[in-house]
Amino acid sequence: MRQSQIFTKTAKNYPEGEEAKNAKLLIKGGFINKSSAGVYSFLPLGLRVLNKINNIIREEINELGAEELLMPALVHKKYWEQADRWGVDVIYRTGGKENSAGVMRREDFEYGLGWTHEEVISAIAKNFINSYKDLPKSVYQIQTKFRAESRVQGGLLRGKEFLMKDLYSFHANKEDLDSYYQKVISAYKKIFKRLGFEALVTEASGGAFTKEFTHEFQVLNPAGEDTIYYCDKCGFSQNKEIFNAASHKNCSGEIKSGRAIEVGNVFKLGTKFSDAFNLFYLNKDGVKLPVIMGSYGIGSTRVMGAIVEQYNDEKGILWPENTAPFQVHLLEISGRNQDKIGKIGTKIYNNLQKSGIEVLYDERNISAGEKFADADLIGIPYRAVISEKTGNKIEIKKRGEKKIKLVNEKEIVKLLKQNQQPRQ
Amino acid sequence: MRQSQIFTKTAKNYPEGEEAKNAKLLIKGGFINKSSAGVYSFLPLGLRVLNKINNIIREEINELGAEELLMPALVHKKYWEQADRWGVDVIYRTGGKENSAGVMRREDFEYGLGWTHEEVISAIAKNFINSYKDLPKSVYQIQTKFRAESRVQGGLLRGKEFLMKDLYSFHANKEDLDSYYQKVISAYKKIFKRLGFEALVTEASGGAFTKEFTHEFQVLNPAGEDTIYYCDKCGFSQNKEIFNAASHKNCSGEIKSGRAIEVGNVFKLGTKFSDAFNLFYLNKDGVKLPVIMGSYGIGSTRVMGAIVEQYNDEKGILWPENTAPFQVHLLEISGRNQDKIGKIGTKIYNNLQKSGIEVLYDERNISAGEKFADADLIGIPYRAVISEKTGNKIEIKKRGEKKIKLVNEKEIVKLLKQNQQPRQ
Fold it and tell me: Complex ipTM, two decimals?
C-alpha cells in the first residue's frame, strides 16, 4: 500500500486526555481513533492488526473443532431475566417504550446489550441438543461486546465496546468437560505464543459458578489491572483474590508478585445456564440430564492493546511479526534524484507485492527525518530504505535494532519470506 | 464438513410466528435463529453464506480503492446532536445515568446505537483531511447497525440489528463526487450480479440532502416493501415516491410497476456533514472549502434474505453458487452395506476437500428420504449421492433440476472446479 494514498496520517503530538500508553501510541500512529471515553474506531492500519489477531485466534479455535457463528448484540430482557442477570451493573439497557410521562424505568427497557452470551447460546443450543448423540458440541463467535464500565483509563485494555472471541462448549458429563477444558488451555497457549505473549495460566476463583478454580491467562505488565503471584520455576500462578502461599508446594522457587493484563480466561459453567434454560439431554438409558457447559473468552481488542504495552520504546510501537500491519516499511529517500529513486522504489514495491509480502511504501514527498520518525512510530518489523546512497542495494533494518544490512532485491524477498511464520 | 458433527439440525416444521419466507426457510434449515422479533443469530451454516456475501462486497469495494475500517456501535449523543439527528425515531438510546427518581429522560441518555455513521466518519476524517492533496479519499466498514423498527415482519429483510457495508467518500469538488458516484454504481452492478441479482438502478428522492436524485438498487420481488415503476426496454426505473410517467422519454417501452427489495443505495451527501463537523480543506489557492461527501450502503444480511426470497421452491432454498454455504452436498445412502459405502464416501469426501471443494458430507445414520429432504431444504447447488446402486460412480444432480448424471471421481472434481467462479 502506498503511504501517500492511505486514509490516515500520523499525528505530531500524543492525544490529549489519554493516559494509557497503548492508546497514546495507537492514536498517534493512526491505528485507532477515540470516539468517546472507552469507545474507539479501528482505522485501516488498526483493522489490519485486529484482523491478524482474530485470524490467529480463529485458526486455533477451528482446530479444536468448534464452529463459528454470530449472535446479536440486542439481547432481549427475557434472556437476562431467565438467568437472573438483568440487574448486573455493566449492562447497557435500551429499547422499550417511554411511559406516558416520557420517562423510562429499568423495567421498561427491552434489551440489554450483550456483554457475554451464555444466555443466548443456551437458548439456541436447546434446538439442537436432545440426546447424548448430540454431545459434545462447541461453538464460538468473534463479536462486539458492550460493558458499561465506569473506569476506562486503559485505552484498549478496558473499553465500553470491544471485540471478543467467546467459545461455548456442551458436554454430557463432567469428565468430558474437564478434558475439553484442558484442550482449550493448550489451544490458548498456542494462540498467545503466536500473538507474542508469555501468558501465565493463573488460577482464579470460580465465583458463583464452580467450587473449582477457573483459569486466567495473564501477561505480566505494569499497565495491567490485576495483581498475580507466580513462580518462575514451576509455573505456579494465582491471582490476588485467591492467593495462598501454602498452595505453592514441592517447589524451591520463589513467589513473586506483579501487575498483569488478563488476555483470556476459561471457565467451567457447570449446569448454571442449562438449568436456567432447560437445556437437557437424554442419556443412553433414556434418563434426562442437564448439559454441562464451559465458556472461554479472549478479548481481541484488549490483546491489541496488550501487544502495544509489551512492545514499545520511546519512539513508538514494535509489532511482533505475526500481528504487524505490514511486514516491511519501504522508505524512498529521493532527495534531488526524485525520478530515478522513485522508479527504483516502484520496482521494488511491485516486486515485493508480487512475492506475497505486505509492504507499506512511503513514497511521500516529505523529509527523510519525518519518514524515519513515522516508521519508528508505526513500528513495522522491518524498515527498508532506498536512497541515492544505496545504489542498487536496499538498506534493511529491524525495528528496535541498530544493525543495518545492505541487501539486493533477491535477498530482501528471501529474508522476508523466511519470516512469514506459518501456523505450527 | 461432516453433517453428523455440525452444531445445527434442520427442523421438522416451519417456525411459529414467522411470516417471511426467507426467515421460515433459513430457520427450518438451521441457517439462522430468531432471538426476538427482528433480531437473529447467524448459525454456522448461515455465517458461511454471510461471509461469502461480505467477501464479494469487500472485493469490489477494495477494487474502488477504498480502505476498510471499523467504527463503534456506541455513538455518543454529541455526534448525533451536532448533525441534528439525536431525535430520529429509529435510534436506540442507551447509557447515561438514571436521575435521583430512578428514571431516564431522553436527554439523560449518553449514546445512540449507530444506525449509520456519517457523523462518526466526518469527525474522524477531520484528523486526516486538511488540504486538496488529501482528497479524494474513501473508507468503508462492514459493521452491525441498529434501528428501532416497529415493523419487523420481513425476516432478514428488515431487522432491528443487521449487518451493513457502508462506504463514505470525500471530495474536493462536485465533479469529483459525481465521477466517483458513477464508479460506485458500476461496482454495485458487479456486486449484485455476482450475488445473483438483476438489480434495477432506481431513481429516488434526495430528501433533505440533495436536489438531485439518489439511486436505489432494487430487486423485483413480491416480498419487497417498495413499489417501483420501471421499463424493461431502456432500464428506466423510479420509486413510487417520485414516479413521474412524463420522465420516461424517448423510449417506446411500457412502464410496469412491481414490488421490490432495496438491496443497496448510493447517496450524494454534499456538505451537510462537513458543514456540521467543520470538515474543511484548503484548495491550491489557500481558500478554505467544505469537503463534498457521498455515502453508499449495502445491507449484507438483507441481501441474504433477498437471495432466499429470489431462489426457493416448495422444498427449500436454491443457493446461487457464489453464496452457497457449500459447493456440493455429498449424501451417503448406505442401506445394509454401511461399512463398504462408508469407506467409499469417506474417500470421495477427502478427495473433494483436497481438491479445494467445499463439501457438506451427510454420513448420518438416517433414512435416504430424510437426507434427500434435508439436501433440498438446505439448497446446496449440487447433490452427489453414493449408494449400493451407484457402484464406483456418483449420482450428481443440480438443485432444482431433475436430470441425474452418473460420473466418476475425476469427473465430479472437474465439474465442480469448473463451477468455482473467479472474480471477473
Answer: 0.97
